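User: Teach me something about this protein's shape.
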Amino acid sequence: MATYSFLDVQASITGPGGVFSLGYGAGTAEEGIDIVANAERDVMTIGADGTAMHNLIVDKSGTVTVRLLKTSPQNAKLQALYDAQTLSSALWGQNVITVTNSANGDITSCRSVAFKKKPDLHYAKEGGINEWEFNAGYIDSVLGTY
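Assistant: First, the predicted structure itself:
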């Protein structure tokens, strides 16, 4: 029987102004990291006579959401990276986010990545989390096996 553990998840962001970890050991919140495609890859069209036509959509874009504990030092690093990259359009959209699972061989590479926005900040009874959202122009994944 296979076993999953976030212990085996490594994630990083690389871009103008910094390179650092976002996976295990980075103060990642229980909700973790989401990688979501923006579009479906197929649109099926049915002709007047009932003939089906499949259309392969060439869209590899998506979003990446990284959830960090309020106390994670990576929040300050991401904020500094965000601030630096907003100074010039030449620095914008140049990040790469990579997420791997060493136990099963999963590898996801997100290229042409830009901050979607800085996180909403909440101050309450409990510290909570900061959600960092990114737009990725290209997401490629290889899912491993257990």
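Now, about its shape. The mean pLDDT is 95. The chain has one domain: 6-142. If you'd like, I can walk through any region in more detail.
User: That's plenty for now, thanks!
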